[in-house]
Amino acid sequence: MYRSHVLVCGGTGCTSSGSQQIMEALKAEIEKNGLTEEVSVVQTGCHGLCALGPIMIIYPDATFYSMVKVEDIPEIVSEHLLKGRVVTRLLYNETVTPSGNVKALIDTDFYKKQHRIALRNCGIINPEVIEEYIGTGGYEALGKVLTEMTPDDVIQCLLDSGLRGRGGGGFPTGLKWKLAKQNDADQKYVCCNADEGDPGAFMDRSVLEGDPHAVLEAMAIAGYAIGASQGYIYVRAEYPIAVERLKIAIAQAREMELLGNNIFGSDFSFDIDLRLGAGAFVCGEETALMTSIEGNRGEPRPRPPFPAQKGLFGKPTILNNVETYANIPQIILHGAQWFASMGTEKSKGTKVFALGGKIHNTGLVEIPMGTTLREVIEEIGGGIPGGKKFKAAQTGGPSGGCIPAEHFDIPIDYDNLISIGSMMGSGGLIVMDEDDCMVDIAKFFLEFTVEESCGKCTPCRVGTKRMLEILTKITKGQATMEDLDKLEELCYYIKDNSLCGLGQTAPNPVLSTLRYFRDEYEAHIKEKRCPAGVCKALLSYRIDADKCRGCTLCARNCPNNAISGTVRNPHVIDQDKCIKCGACMEKCKFGAIYKK
Amino acid sequence: MASKKEHVPFSGTPEQEAALKKVIAELKDTKGALMPIMQQAQEIYGYLPIEVQTMISDETGIPLEKIYGVSTFYSQFALQPKGKYQISVCLGTACYVKGSGAIFSKLEELLGITNGECTPDGRFSLDSCRCVGACGLAPVMMINDEVYGRLTPDDVPGILAKYK
Question: What ipTM does this complex have?
Fold first, then answer.
């Protein structure tokens, strides 16, 4: 028995800010003080509050330390672990009340509206120890399914729960399984899509790093339900920690006979293999992913036949996303009604979002469906830094759209997001403020799609390229209003005629910004002006003669000698020489330089 | 400006070849083995020149054209060697809106190379990548396995100096 457990986050965010070094220093310091018998150090998965990493939580009181440094370790050990005194200066400031008392983490703005199902074990258990997963009820659902339920019961339970695919499409999971079960075959497959390619979304990574067994358990349940004996997890190679933990988890589950032959003494056998992606965004599309597992160029194929009929190696296959799987053991244990009691009419349960961009609390949050954007951004996210004005929230990555302030109070669910021109996607939520140019953002996403288009079908391969060319013209101030019409026409054409989801959704970033921020496009075209001051070709830097004190700092920092003037007299920028690097504006101490 | 490192002559060792043959022998009979074989081959050689692809083709009986097709489809397979220090700058959305474009430009300016290129001395290679999942630290870049977060362009020269 240990009297205290110190949890150190070993997720990617905190590892990147140095949590491994902290773990090592902590273990050494504990040993030095002779506390190894009393205090246990546990490496966990992600707590969600990545912006404040590295994070350390000390139980039994759940004291939450943020932005811990190696230098802080001796103080934490001698004060907290030896003398029982909290190191106030390292506390997450939200947990300290104005009167100096410490409040529980779940009462802070970041956590209080969250409801963690998919992330329930992340940050709580050591993902590399199967006993810790079992200790929180792990593999109980698999046992229940194999001993008390028929495959049809399992599928009915999922249908009743209303669970929809968390990878973006929102297809009912139970229905997917039902279709695969109906097709007889000598071999079927269960696949897991862990090729999280959507830039800015990292919830799947956190689940895999923090709770890998939940995914394995759910895949085995799926195998039982549809009659498959083999599973594949297709995981991004860019996620080395997740890959490592999955390998460990699979080996441990095999060791305990939770994977392999005759699981729980039943006649059900199931095993799982890992396949590593190699950096192709299109492989997030289901048929492309299967083509890639088969060892080919990851190009999508036309549907029908759907994977439930003819999928991997030509056999009936189901493919679900990591977060979808992470929900399933909980649904089996607590029942369909429990899950269906959360969320909105057509979107049940919770959704994990990766908050990023211009927001205080970047990180992972899991909220009930139907929470409003306002609650997510202002309350959980802590608002926008620097007193800037909110402009848009981007959801759904390169397939989604930008949501403007006028829809701040819309409850977030699959159907609402589609109705306002965006989509759930895998759950990236990037906040943009008044300094972001929406035309530039649309161009950014198109650059991504052009690079990632696999080239198999013409509308996507050629169409997105043409769209990017028009967008580039607009950001350079060379486009006409006719170009804008052409751009819009192209959007609808590509949407209707592309082979797979990548092409069909590629125009969304343009369509949604055209819908809500048309004035910005028009300002670029008609007035040759970028309202947010981002598009370099349309900018000019000027010096306000009233504010300039003639300190010469700007002139000395200009890399192209474009600024002239004498000491104590207002300076002037030669627009022909200016390369628009912005160095002068950064250096000016009087705010005399402005962009126009 | 220095030009990028063009064609590098292949210099595989017998040890590398033996390691590759062992990998192929182990994986040959698994379904869809080509990608795992190519991934391990890249681990062994650092990249996948045509000579290595030919060896895989000879050992597995898979046509070279298919192997070449796969190697050029996925961004992780490199046909040219990478630098001793591989720099990748995240240009994912979260990093982009926090200014990773300026970090990338600064690196281009300091190293004299652009996306996908390697410095003539073989020291640095520069790539853009899509989201390393450390959005809380945006903007982020990686040099080999080391992650640098919350960057400003002014931090870049100091970081590069560590790798001289």
Answer: 0.89
